[in-house]
Amino acid sequence: MDKRAFQFSPVQRYLDRIHEELLDLNDGAVADYIPELTRADPSWLGIAMVTVDGHVYQVGDSRQSFTIQSISKAITYGLALEDRGLDQVLGKVGVEPSGEAFNSISLEPGTGRPMNPMINAGAIATTGLIESKPDAPPMQRILEAFGRYTGRPMQIDETVYRSESDTGHRNRAIAHLLLGYGILDRTPEEVVDLYFRQCSILVTARDLAMIGACLANNGVNPVTGVVALQSRYVEKVLSVMSTCGMYDFSGAWIFNVGMPAKSGVGGGITAVLPGQFGLGVFSPRLDAKGNSVRGIEACKRLSKDFSLHLFHVARSTSATVMRQVYNCAKRTSRRRRSAAELAVLAEQGHRIRVYELQGELLFGSAESVGVEILSELARVDYLVIDLKRVIGMDQASILVLSELCMRIADQGKRLFFTDSKNLYRFRKHLQGNAYRGQEPGPLHFEDTDHAVEWCENQLIAQTDSTGADTSVADLNHQYLCAAMTHEELESLRHAGREREFKTGERIFDAGDRAESMFFILSGEVEVWIDTGAGQPLSHHLRLSSLGPGMVFGEVALVNEKRRTANVSAAMDTRCLELRFDAIPDALLVKMLMSMASHFANKIERDTQLIQQLA
Amino acid sequence: MDKRAFQFSPVQRYLDRIHEELLDLNDGAVADYIPELTRADPSWLGIAMVTVDGHVYQVGDSRQSFTIQSISKAITYGLALEDRGLDQVLGKVGVEPSGEAFNSISLEPGTGRPMNPMINAGAIATTGLIESKPDAPPMQRILEAFGRYTGRPMQIDETVYRSESDTGHRNRAIAHLLLGYGILDRTPEEVVDLYFRQCSILVTARDLAMIGACLANNGVNPVTGVVALQSRYVEKVLSVMSTCGMYDFSGAWIFNVGMPAKSGVGGGITAVLPGQFGLGVFSPRLDAKGNSVRGIEACKRLSKDFSLHLFHVARSTSATVMRQVYNCAKRTSRRRRSAAELAVLAEQGHRIRVYELQGELLFGSAESVGVEILSELARVDYLVIDLKRVIGMDQASILVLSELCMRIADQGKRLFFTDSKNLYRFRKHLQGNAYRGQEPGPLHFEDTDHAVEWCENQLIAQTDSTGADTSVADLNHQYLCAAMTHEELESLRHAGREREFKTGERIFDAGDRAESMFFILSGEVEVWIDTGAGQPLSHHLRLSSLGPGMVFGEVALVNEKRRTANVSAAMDTRCLELRFDAIPDALLVKMLMSMASHFANKIERDTQLIQQLA
Questions:
Q1: Neighbouring C-beta atoms of residue B4, cutoff 10 Å
Q2: Are B286 and B335 members of one domain?
Q3: Residue B468 falls within a domain, yes or no?
Q4: Last residue of a domain, one of A265, A284, A306
Q5: Beta carbons of B316 and A52 less than 8 Å apart
Q6: pLDDT for res A102
Q7: Which residues of A touch B482 (CB under 8 A)?
Q8: Which residue of B has its CA nearest to A370?
């Protein structure tokens, strides 16, 4: 992507502007509770934003390292949830705001359970829950977890760590209290040491924005694609950030700023707008509550200037995910059909309906799509739901759509999903559940074209009188010969030459000189192109398949003198090859009339389709 | 819409199931703090859900009336914000969770400001802020506000009101304390009376779901379309519901259930999943904290079974809102062009690019669309952003897109928005801002076709050598005559008849017998259809406009024998009319060859376009 896109972006220019404005804000003081932190340059200011698309914006000292401090609490909490599960973690640490300062001890009377994981007591208890694996001690696992969020290997600032360790008497006291209540399984020394190291991990404002972006993006790092946190725990981490992340002004923070956030005394703040972006700000001057003064101000301005708020989300309706709906009376599959087959599809094709979805399916949009489908169900027998452009499905939408599958099967209708290969959980769920009551047969197709062709074949097979699927057809089935008398057909037959091709045999190649057309008498041919070098997977792209009663190569009569695609016999096939220069003059006008008429009708259908699509 | 769609809906069946299961849950007791409430039938259970699409699901006693009680606090808070603005309301009532029970007095030390509007003290202070208008006293205004949410006129249960009033000593005490602190402007008697009446408003579970749906739908009632609450205050009401709505277990509620909610001692609960739905549950048995036992359980099950959570939102990226992108080398406007003009567009059309958006634009998606546009900007001179399928734009996306306008104007490119008529705030903002630096000329077009035609005209006008825009063309410019010699053209001219039409004159009508074709020699004609009765607005739908060098009516030579559209002279126009039966045999084959070839090329382009669109 063109780098200038970001440079000229409205977002970059906005961040540049608030960076410049905030340089004038000099309130607050650098943290001094441990000596090492006082060495920070109070003038540092870095701002970064990373969107869920993985676009990175940064300005100022966004690459300056500093220690993560309390922001680590949110990440470690997520790792503890992954290690121990919800119940075990909730048994050790609560989720209620304490209404008190970050270093308050706030243990629940009786159980000694810290009120929440964002205060020191809760964070120490959380760190104590991180598992040790045979080949990965807890600290290594913590560093690796942080690295999944930031997308780079993480390191500890050893000087800050020693400084924390030398002065962390209150945290040691907390750990001993927790041990006394049975909250810790390990020695207080061990847990507190881990906690000090975790707080001393070096990050940049860019890292903080990337951490926020992972949480905004359902747990997936939007740049590397790595899962930083299992999606089911993302909402839990964001919940405690929203109710407890900003200590004793969490209510006002959500009310005014409306972004779950976490700050650290190193001067960093990570803020998250779920579904949209992560914001990282670094400026070492802190207010009395230990939050970065400029960091808070940056979050406030961004929220105010753009009216951003976590409760402002995209409505989840069919209008947001339904890309288009069409039926197959007007738009058939790419398979070329005989006139008789086309007549069946023109009359019956409305019984096949295709729904193209796009974007992210949630409960609301899945429900809305379901209603739209069910409300038309009486008029439809085959339904194809195209998921090619769907970028995600949550648990609710999976349940709603798989229930829908069963409702549709109950009604004796067939439903297919296409292009669902990236929606692994959905496919798995369907395999387990939605098949019940469904007739045997495919439920998924690679693409919509194949699914529609399958449905069309059913419709055609159900219509006995069409003469479709016969394995032989005479010239009088050919649209080009529609207006000819028996004698004219005979003279045409004599002008041509019968040819036979074995399965797989090439009839002609793209680029060949084109001097004849082929009427198919029996068998089947495939028209295809080679998608060429550089695309290792799909060399062979089928454009159409043709059967008895159809013609190919005829356009060259009026147009290009070279073949534009390859044609092969898909089974043993018999054709009448007719050289253009052998067509009797008297028949040429009739064939041209038929051809132009046929094309005009095709153009009319295509035009309707294009207007429908566009 | 087919009613059965809802009946068979997975959502209806799910609600039916939890309704049945919850009937077995008989914990808790009907409220007895006022005598009137004890008359409720403890077995009542009504559940309703209303989606942001306005789909209504209900089961059980969903139409049973009961008094709204504390759920009214959220609605009145919204009305107070509209009446007084944010600052004035925040001066009287805070937004921090109190961590205490609903009837706690919880006033801020010193100021006497109630901690939040969801406890009684805060709610009484809030009710005291509702303005009295000359023709609408506060109670009438409150009833009208509630009615905007529910979509029906609201009434008070007079018996419950009197019972509340007779026993509400604690609330009177609170009001007097508030008066003492200067929080109230009116007499405590007056304010408490309003408060008792507000709590005695009769609602059903369906009403509660509708209230929730308004909050989920950015303040707009999804069934009536009425604005229940100005959108900028919706996030404020949801914020206090999320941090304070469930009293002293708000932290756990957000963590576990993840839906802002409010309960009342009448047995009702309203829960909101922003962007998705409102849920209303009614069951009179309460737990010790005054919340409906079955109501809480219904919210919990729904949240758990579908993994619903307010932090689980659709990602806001270009993948969710970009419906398609195309350039006009392959897909031109509906205006029919001469061969010379088409050649210009084939070569230069890539300089016009159309972006079709759909769904709801938020900060994230607007940013992402902006990056996509800017990254290709060097290759494009005209940009058309089609907003026809956009159902909403928030403030952030308006700012980002209007900044984008200016960036594009800075680069000397032209940007147009089409079909933006429903996006009033966006248009207004652009008028005020984005025009700066933009060349004079249109910024909005009614539809994309007209915008693209405008851009095409610019491209064609810039290309001098094309011979386009000449006002006269001879037969040799006609594609049907491309292969003819001078002598053949002369014989064709003699076979035809020159005709002149005045501006506005009808050349033929749809349905007329078709026995000739018309070569345009000068002027311009319009092909159009009447969209017919029942559509009062757009009777005249232009299909195309044609100029010198083009032909119309020619398809009838090979096809229908009736006209399929009307053709009128758009200006004074001269044509050569050629009767089909007058075409010399020798020329017929040439014309049919040209026609079939032309159609074949058109089909190829259309096929490419369809594949691109599909």
A1: 12
A2: no
A3: no
A4: A306
A5: yes
A6: 62
A7: none
A8: B9
To the nearest whole angstrom, how far is the Cα of B311 from the nearest Cα of chain A? 5
Residue B248 lies in a domain: yes
Instruction: Give a yes or no: residue B467 inside a domain.
Output: no
What one-character-per-residue DSSP string does B205-250 give? HHHHHHHHHHHHTTTB-TTT--BSS-HHHHHHHHHHHHHHTTGGGH
Q: Are A210 and A150 in contact (CB under 8 A)?
A: yes
Does B164 appear as a known binding residue?
A: yes
User: pLDDT at position A73, please?
Assistant: 97
Residue B247 appears among annotated catalytic residues: yes
Q: Look at B425 and B358; give whichever has higher pLDDT.
A: B358
Same domain (yes/no): A416, A509: no
Print the domain residue range for B499.
475-613
Strand order in the sheet with A414-418: A322-327, A352-361, A382-393, A414-418, A444-445
Q: Is A323:A369 a contact under the CB 8 Å cutoff? A: no
Instruction: Decide: A499 and A488 in contact? Cβ < 8 Å.
Output: no
User: B495-512: buried (b, 16+ CB within 10 Å) or exposed (e) per residue?
Assistant: ebeeeebeeeeebbeeeb
Look at residues A405, A437, A462 and tell me which one is the last residue of a structural domain: A462
Contact B5 A371 (CB under 8 A): yes
ipTM for the assembly: 0.79
Domain check: are B452 and B576 in the same one? no
Among A311, A594, A600, beta carbon nearest to B599: A600
> Is B470 within a domain?
no
Task: Name the residue facing B306 among A274, A395, A555 (closest C-beta).
Answer: A395
> For residue A415, what are the contacts with CB-CB under 8 A and spacing of at least 6?
A383, A384, A385, A404, A405, A408, A409, A438, A443
Catalytic residue among A265, A400, A527, A567: A265
Collect all residues of chain A within an 8 Å Cβ-Cβ radius of residue B273: 363-364
Tell whether A509 and A574 lie within a shared domain: yes
Chain-centroid distance, C-alpha A94 = 33
Is A265 a residue of the active site?
A: yes
For an interface test with A, which of B16, B592, B605, B607 has the most A Cβ atoms less than 10 Å from its Cβ? B592
Q: What is the CATH classification number for the domain harbouring B155?
A: 3.40.710.10
Per-residue pLDDT, A223? 96
Residue of A363, A554, A604, A608 best to disrupt the B interface, most CBs of B under 10 A: A363
> pTM of the predicted model, to two decimals?
0.80
Mean pLDDT by 10 residues, chain A (614 residues): 65 94 94 84 96 95 96 98 97 85 74 92 96 95 98 96 92 94 94 97 98 96 96 95 79 91 95 96 93 94 91 88 89 78 89 94 93 90 94 91 86 89 82 55 78 89 56 75 87 92 92 92 85 51 79 86 87 93 88 88 76 61
Q: What is the mean pLDDT of residues B386-393?
A: 92
* B291 and B323 fall within a common domain: no
Tell me the pLDDT tens digit for each residue of B172-203.
999 999 999 999 989 999 999 999 999 999 99
Asked if B359 and A359 come within 8 Å (Cβ–Cβ), the reply is yes
CB B563 within 8 A of CB B515: no
Q: Is B441 exposed, middle or buried (0-12, 13-18, 19+ CB in 10 A)?
A: exposed
Q: How many domains does chain A have?
A: 3
Same structural domain, B62 and B117? yes
A436-440, B112-116, B302-306, B447-451: least confident range? A436-440
Say if the Cβ atoms of B312 and A274 lie within 8 Å: yes
CA distances from A46 to A23, A295, A424, B557 (A): 10, 9, 39, 73
Question: B364: domain CATH number?
Answer: 3.30.750.24
Q: Do A252 and B96 touch (CB under 8 A)?
A: yes
pLDDT confidence band for B520 (50 / 70 / 90): very high
Does residue B116 sit in the same domain as residue B18? Answer: yes
Tell whether B451 and B480 lie within a shared domain: no
Closest chain B residue to A599 measured between Cα atoms?
A: B599
